[in-house]
Amino acid sequence: VNNAPVWALPKLLPDKYETTKWGITNIWDTTRMKEKFTKTPQTESFMHVHLGIDGTGLENLDIHYTVIDEWESGIDAPGNMVVISIPTVLDPSMAPDGKHVVHAYTAGNEPYDLFKGLDRKSPKYQ
Q1: Which residues, in sequence order, are bridge partners of residue 52?
Q2: Residue 95, SS3?
Q3: Measured in Å, how far apart are the chain's first and last C-alpha atoms?
Q4: Cα(123)–Cα(75) distance, rounded to whole angstroms?
Q5: What is the pLDDT of residues 65-108, one digit of tens each?
Q6: Is residue 58 within 8 Å of residue 100, measured between CB atoms?
Q7: Is 37 in contact with 2 (CB distance < 8 Å)?
Q8: Measured between alpha carbons, how far is 47 from 106 in angstroms, rounded to an integer?
Q9: CB-CB contact of 106 with 47 (8 Å)
């Protein structure tokens, strides 16, 4: 199980490793796999926001919402679509009583070049 970007894996994986199962030891070479990882093309950028909110007055919520700014540009236009998930609608134990967890994200179609190399604290980035 891995939560690192595929491009970070070549630095994290050893060149070789051993496994033993049922008394049989295998030596695995990761060189070719690491080469494939470095050649994996990047997708467009997307944004995730995770929030904890007060649920007072928010009865009868749906678990998912999709917000489209305008249909003419299509849902794959940068900045045009946000998907919102509220998992505490189905499992209230995921947050304290009276609270909700909200996960909002864009559609994975933001051009990364707009943000590449920008200082994250700069007004232009924000």
Answers
A1: 101
A2: coil
A3: 33
A4: 27
A5: 999 999 998 887 877 889 999 999 999 999 999 999 999 988 77
A6: yes
A7: no
A8: 5
A9: yes
